[in-house]
Design goal:
Length: 221
């Protein structure tokens, strides 16, 4: 079976504009200084809870658990709607269609909460292609723990898979799971490509189907 599992934010979609807006709406409500787009982008990858922790630290709120829970709830009320400013990366939809035509089974492994994940999959039409999903709420563990990735692979009925992601979190997840990793270099990573675990690297989704074909042909050889 040719199984491929994708990350979502920074891999299939650029959600940083909507995450930035939601965080700043919370800060405005609280009468606090807003964060920059670059800061918001750098906070993405380990889920909404970590993002809010980083926002709180940036604006000097400390790490009080009750305050974190309150601000996270406010953040989710702003973020759990249709994505207004999020964009699909160039070539993604064509690549997914080509992979489907190649009889690839595809799933999703993300640290995004379940509701915005579900909304994004429907909004952008990814639910047609990605049959199995692990979000931040599917298991007690979250990436970079390998459990969510292995969970999706099991749901796909795959003993092995190629994981496609963009970040240090994704690379660590794949490495800990013992899964080959295809790094999309135009996402949210902060580390040089040469210093990250990966089997392949690509900068446009037009390249992914051929990369996948090469990967699975080498496995069969």
């Amino acid at each position: 079976m040719k199984a491929i599992v994708f990350d979502l934010d920074g891999t299939l979609i650029d959600s940083a504009p909507d995450l930035h807006l939601a965080a700043n709406l919370v800060l405005r409500d609280e009468g606090l200084p807003e964060i920059t787009f670059a800061q918001a982008r750098s906070f993405i990858g380990k889920g909404a809870g970590v993002l809010i922790s980083r926002v709180m630290d940036t604006v000097g709120l400390g790490d009080d658990p009750a305050e974190h829970a309150r601000l996270l709830a406010k953040f989710m009320t702003h973020y759990e709607g249709e994505p207004a400013h999020t964009l699909v990366y160039p070539g993604v939809m064509d690549a997914l269609a080509r992979l489907e035509a190649m009889s690839c089974s595809m799933g999703l492994c993300t640290n995004k909460p379940e509701e915005p994940t579900r909304i994004a999959l429907r909004h952008f039409g990814f639910d047609r292609f990605l049959s199995k999903v692990a979000s931040a709420d599917t298991l007690p563990q979250r990436k970079p723990d390998p459990a969510p990735l292995l969970h999706v692979m099991r749901d796909l009925g795959a003993d092995s898979a190629l994981y496609v992601g963009d970040s240090e979190v994704d690379a660590e997840t794949a490495e800990r799971a013992g899964v080959p990793f295809a790094l999309y270099t135009e996402g949210y990573r902060k580390t040089p490509v040469s210093e990250m675990y990966h089997s392949y690297a690509f900068d446009h989704f037009d390249a992914l189907p051929d990369l996948v074909a090469r990967h699975f042909s080498e496995i069969r050889a």
